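Sat 14:20. Reprocessing the chain from the morning session after the first attempt stalled halfway. Input below, unchanged.
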Amino acid sequence: MSGHKRFQAVSWAVAYIVFTGPAVALAIDGTPVWLQSPVGAAGAGATLSSPVLAFDHFGTPAVSWSAFGGPPGTDAVSRSERSGLGLWATRSVSTGAGRQTALSFDRAERPAIAWIDDIGAVRAQVDDGATQTVVANGANVGQPALSLTHDLAGNLRGVFSGATPGAFSSISESGGVVSSASVGTLPGVNSLMDLRLTTDGGGLAHLIARADLAAGGEGVIIASEPSFGGNWPSTVLAGADTVNGVGIARDPGDDNVALAYTTFEAGTNTSSLFYAKFDGITLNTTQVLSSTSASFGDISLAFDLSDGQPAIAFEQQLLSPFSEQLMFAYLDATATWQTSLVDDTISMSNAQNTLRGPSLAFDDFGTSFPAIAYIDADESLAVAFDPPGVPEPSTLFLLVCGLAIVAVRRR
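Finished this time. C-alpha cells:
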C-alpha cells in the first residue's frame, strides 16, 4: 500500500454550524481524517473474502478474513489483531478455504469466529479453541451468507444461509460448544445473497437480507425472532432491479433497530442509499444519497457508541473516469447526512466476481472512533481509522480561531 494512502487526509466541504444553545458533542465533529493501516495480503493467485472488523471492550481491533483460490495448501482463515504499537499479528485459524467469515467478542473479550468453507460446512472457534464443525454441509457456497453478534447479555447469536432457496439457520453457543438449528425459510426467495444480524435490547434477533426474488428482481428482506419462538415473520422491505448491499445495527441509545441498504434501478440508471430506523412504532426511511453517475455497492452500518449517531461505510463505483472507492456517510450536528472519501482505489469484487464489502465498527472503550476494514485495489486487506488524536478540519478551525473547544471525544 502506498504511503499516500496510509496517511491520506480527505478534505471535503465542511459546513460551519452556529449553535444557539448548548453545543452537541459529536465524536465525528468535522470531516473525518482517515489513516490506513495495512493488515495482510492474498498470496499468489488467491483472493480475499469480505473482512469482518470488531473491537473488544478494551479497544483492541480485530479482523476475521480468509484467502482462497491460491495454490494448494495456501488457503486459510485468519484472525488479525492490532497491537498497541500499531502492528498487526495474524493467527491462522484454519487451513483450507473460507468463503465467508464472521467475528464477534463477548463481554469477557472472548472472540468467536465462524466461517463457511468450500464444501458448504460451517465451522467455528470460541476463544481460540479447537475448531468445531457446526454443520457438515448444507450452507450456501455460491453466495455464502453468514453473520455473528453477541446480545447485551453476552450470548452468541448468528445466522447463515442454506443451499435451499430462502432457508437460513441459527448459530448459538453454550459452554464453549457451538451449535445450529434450522430457523425456517423466507418465502418468495430464489436465493439469499447476503444477510446481517443484530439483536435488540430485549435480546431478540433481527436480520436483513439481500435476496433474488422469485417474482423477479431483487429485494431487501427483513425478519424478526418472536419472543415465543417458532417461525420468524418476514417481509420484503424494498424491491429493485438490483440490491447491492444491506446492513443492520442496534441503536445503543434506545435499543431499537436500524437498517441500511443500496438499490439500483436500470430504467432511470439511479443508485440510491437508504437508512431506516424503527422508532418503536413505525419504520422511518430516509434516502441518504441518490446518483445517476455513481453506483453504490456493499455497505456496513454501525452506531457511534459515544453519541449514538449512525454511520455507514459504503462502496461507490464511478464510471467516468472509472474508479472504485470506499466512502463513509455520517450525521453532522444538524442531523444532515455528510460523506467522506476513505480510499479512492479499492477492489469491490473478488476473482469469482462476487461482491464483497467493507466492515465498519466503532471503538467502545474510552474514546469512540470509527474504523473500516476493506480490500484494497492490490488485493490486500487494510483497516482505515479516523483516530481521536488527529483533529478534524472543523475542530482545527475552531481551535485556531479561539471560538470554542468542541467535540471532546468521550465514551
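Residues 393-401 form the longest helix (9 residues).
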